[in-house]
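Each record in this resource describes a single protein on a pair of labelled lines. With that in mind, the following record should read easily:

===
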Amino acid sequence: MTDRTTDGTTDGTTDDATETPGPDREELDVLRAALVGAHARPPLARDELEAWEARHGVTLPEPYRTFLTRVANGFSAAPSGEEVLLPLGRLPDSWYHWDSENWLSPDRFDPSAPRDPAAPFPLTEEWQWEYDYFPDEHVGLMASLYRDGSVLLGAEEDGCYWALVTAGPRRGTVWQLADGTAFPYTGPDEAEDGAPPLGFLDWIRQWNTGRGWWNDR
């Protein structure tokens, strides 16, 4: 059972609902600091989150799970501006009118296809299908990449999305699904081969420190 502090944070021990550690107080402060100057949606109630997880047959990875119920269910840079961090389960507008130059599958991208965050995410390493595509092998993989094992965190531009992996060997890591490639995000600097991909906490931490994915926002 989790030991909780007086404000509801954990002391780093295991959360009995998820069997994974929740954020400690310092980590929760990092997550909250991302909202300075932003317009946040109210957090989800715990029963709302659990109902979403039950419908989709998945437990979301920490600390994203706690972020949704303790900090915010998404936020934007301005009251009526584009959402920087999508609410849980939301798809960006560009998802529905993305016209890819590098969608090589003979089956067109189907924005209405249901997403399954409980199905294993199909990749464990970067894939550049713009250069490495074989129809007999990869038609199903391309569809699965945009459908299975993740929730979308946000969009950079049409066809370029941030995804948090929710199932499979890379669970808990942040990936970029770009137009022609998908890769685990290792940070803003050119990383050496084998650098570990960032999780949600470090992805958000870059917002706080003035580095990384959000610089042009």
Observations:
- The two ends are 40 Å apart (CA to CA).
- Confidence is low (pLDDT under 50) at residues 1-18.
- The chain has one domain: 25-209.
- Strands lie at 39-40, 75-76, 83-85, 150-157, 160-165, 174-177, 182-184.
